[in-house]
């Protein structure tokens, strides 16, 4: 131990990976209000009422010189080297790792925040559906990976409920032709009605109002898009137009080199790959890299390339989409139970890799 104090704000995939590795060598304070890890890539399982797999943060930090301060960050004093928190005095640091990540974006849609459940609160629609006297309709907003996984899981777990997947574009539109075709076949088999090119304009107690007409729903789950936490911009870190902090090749803020930014909070451009998308697949490798740099186990710039994308399509089916290094689609896909096993192995490996 050389006496350096590292503060990590945020206990997601990136923040925890950085804290556990830096904590091998330095004194680390992890600031996050949660007591248990939010395994976001399993939110579709939580929404369907399946048993949760959320290990305690204390368990993940065992054996490391990391103190978990269970409170919210309210501000960053970058000039003074302090983090202000909701409860207690400000926390000083020698090095800051900013990993507050992203949150559901409502895009100003009237009634969305009041009447829809974001993926971060997936346990709430599970209680609504599980406690309903009679089956009804659940509408999932968003045709990306999270929305597709939610729709498939809910339809399989609750076959008496009607499930609607509503998206402004195409469901799985970024996938290869074979990949998207498989997704649509599985959703049809599970009884999911897909409403494409239907932009949601309002949400109320009766369901959705869209550019193609109303979609009645008893429960609305919102998985349309994410946005970075605004604290980076508010504190004075240089941010990209989408609000993510701009970093150099070592994942340090270009405006404040004493601050590392990792995960969905960071606007990262990798040579030969391009701007990285937000998500667990990129967040955890960033946290691992910074944690290893601070822990003295590696040096040099952050390196990354894409290999594949995975989707769960219920308990018995899935999709593994092969991609090029820059995340563009290859034609080859793996489907069915083998793809589901691959996805499960990757998701389980994520927890192991946090340490």
From TrEMBL:
Residue ranges of domain FAD/NAD(P)-binding in the record: 5-271
Coiled-coil spans in chain: none
Keyword terms: FAD, Flavoprotein, Oxidoreductase
SUPFAM superfamilies referenced in this protein's UniProt entry, alphabetically: FAD/NAD(P)-binding domain (SSF51905)
Keyword Oxidoreductase: yes
Protein name: FAD-dependent oxidoreductase
Keyword Flavoprotein: yes
InterPro entries xrefs: FAD/NAD-bd_sf (IPR036188), FAD/NAD-binding_dom (IPR023753), NADH-Q_oxidoreductase (IPR051169)
Cofactor(s), names only, from the UniProt record: FAD
Family: Belongs to the NADH dehydrogenase family.
Gene3D superfamilies linked: 3.50.50.100
């Amino acid at each position: 131990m050389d006496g350096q104090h590292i503060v990590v704000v945020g206990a997601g995939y990136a923040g925890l990976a950085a804290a556990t590795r830096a904590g091998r060598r330095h004194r680390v304070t992890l600031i996050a209000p949660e007591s248990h890890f939010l395994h976001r890539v399993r939110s579709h399982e939580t929404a369907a009422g399946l048993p949760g797999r959320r290990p305690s943060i204390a368990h993940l930090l065992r054996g490391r010189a990391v103190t978990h301060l269970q409170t919210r960050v309210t501000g960053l004093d970058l000039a003074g080297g302090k983090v202000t928190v909701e409860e207690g005095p400000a926390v000083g640091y020698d090095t800051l790792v900013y990993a507050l990540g992203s949150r559901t974006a409502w895009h100003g849609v009237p009634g969305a925040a009041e009447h829809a459940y974001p993926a971060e609160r997936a346990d709430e629609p599970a209680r609504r559906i599980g406690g309903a006297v009679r089956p009804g309709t659940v509408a999932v907003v968003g045709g990306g990976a999270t929305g597709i996984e939610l729709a498939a899981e809910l339809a399989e777990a609750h076959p008496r409920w009607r499930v609607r997947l509503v998206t402004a574009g195409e469901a799985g539109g970024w996938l290869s032709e074979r990949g998207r075709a498989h997704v649509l076949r599985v959703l049809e088999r599970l009884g999911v009605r897909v409403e494409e090119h239907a932009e949601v304009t309002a949400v109320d107690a009766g369901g959705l109002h869209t550019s193609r007409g109303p979609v009645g729903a008893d429960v609305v789950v919102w998985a349309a898009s994410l946005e970075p936490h605004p604290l980076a911009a508010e504190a004075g870190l240089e941010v990209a137009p989408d609000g993510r902090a701009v970093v150099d090749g070592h994942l340090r803020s270009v405006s404040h080199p004493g601050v590392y930014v990792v995960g969905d909070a960071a606007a990262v451009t990798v040579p030969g790959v391009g701007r990285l998308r937000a998500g667990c697949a990129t967040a955890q490798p960033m946290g691992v890299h910074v944690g290893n740099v601070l822990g003295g186990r590696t040096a040099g710039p952050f390196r990354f390339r894409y290999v594949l994308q995975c989707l769960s399509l219920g308990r018995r089916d899935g999709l593994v989409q092969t991609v090029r290094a820059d995340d563009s689609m290859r034609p080859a896909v793996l489907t069915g139970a083998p793809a589901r096993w691959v996805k499960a192995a990757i998701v389980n490996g994520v927890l192991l890799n946090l340490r």
